[in-house]
Amino acid sequence: MIFEKNLPHTLPNRLNGDAMDHERQFHGNVQVLFIKERELGFDVSQRFKRLLREYIAASAGPMVVCLEKVEFVDSTALSALLAAQRWLQQAGHPFCICSISGPVLRIIRLTSLDKHLNIQPDITKALASMHPPERASGSSPER
Question: Is the whole-model pTM more than 0.70?
Fold first, then answer.
């Protein structure tokens, strides 16, 4: 699949024609998914995981998932986020989630996933975390 940059896309569910409401943008080589679903419960989370998998396969590179509109996640949605992080790490690319609502952040903290996921407060900081500042040539790492 080829997508135009900076245009919203809805990826159809190939099993039953349902779709997941989202927008996909590129900022340089970083793809950003803005999830527009209010709840990522079991039924939506399966589509969410499939969406992440297909976009990761289609565009190898860093990914940011913006969860600003999401008010509820269950364990299957959290599993999908961890799987996406694992797939990207295996390919050598960073993964980050950002703009998380209070209720979702409480669930992430309650499950201690805040210790395992790169979480940023907003899209600007998320994009910055995808490209850490480079060290000056010849400088050695701090010890």
Answer: yes
Q: How far apart are CA 3 and CA 18, in angstroms?
A: 19
If residue 63 lies in a helix (H) or strand (E), which one and from where to where?
Answer: strand 63-66
Confidence of residue 134 (pLDDT cuts 50, 70, 90): low
Question: 17-26, 48-57, 122-131: which range is least confident on average?
Answer: 17-26
Cα–Cα separations (whole angstroms), residue 112 to 66, 120, 127, 137 = 19, 16, 23, 37
- Rounded to the nearest 10 degrees, the angle between the axes of helix 75-90 and helix 42-58 is 10
- What tokens were used for 107? 């669930």
The CA-atom distances, in angstroms, between 139 and each of 132, 134, 143 are 16, 10, 12
Residue 125: name the closest of 98, 93, 106 by CA: 98
Among residues 50, 24, 54, 49, which one has the least CA distance to residue 36? 24
d(CA 120, CA 56): 20
